[in-house]
Amino acid sequence: MTAEMRYKEIASLARKATVDVQSWERSRAVELESAIEAARADVDAATEREQRAMTQARRWWRMAMDNVARLSWLDAGDEPEPAETARASHLDRHIEDVRTGYQDLTRAVQSLGWRAR
Predict the structure, then answer these.
(1) pLDDT (tens digit, 9 = 90+) per residue, 17-47?
(2) Cα angle for residues 70, 68, 72 (degrees, 5° grid)
(3) Quick one: angle between helices 91-111 and 3-68, nearest 10?
(4) What angle do CA 75, 102, 99 make, to 5 degrees?
(5) d(CA 17, CA 9)
(6) How far apart are CA 41 and CA 46, in angstroms?
(7) I need a surface site. Which of 49, 55, 68, 106 has the fewest CB within 10 A?
């Protein structure tokens, strides 16, 4: 094999490697764009769930305040802030805890005698 043939072989391999890398980069870019779009959709869905949960919790808080508004001896304080450490995977359990707490409060207020009110 002559030096010229070896040079042409090396140049051909370099060109093929360049084409292969460019092809891989294009396919990887498409994969990454798809992954980014899926992640954005997940973030949007999580934000939507968070907003619904906060709205629901605030509604229960207002209803609870209505239940205890006539109790002069009870100071309910300010509306609670969302817990930053709450796990999204436990959202249903957190919502159930708030609902159960509201129902327990409602039953407790209803069971008070007229003197306690």
Answers:
(1) 999 999 999 999 999 999 999 999 999 998 9
(2) 45
(3) 0
(4) 145
(5) 12
(6) 9
(7) 55
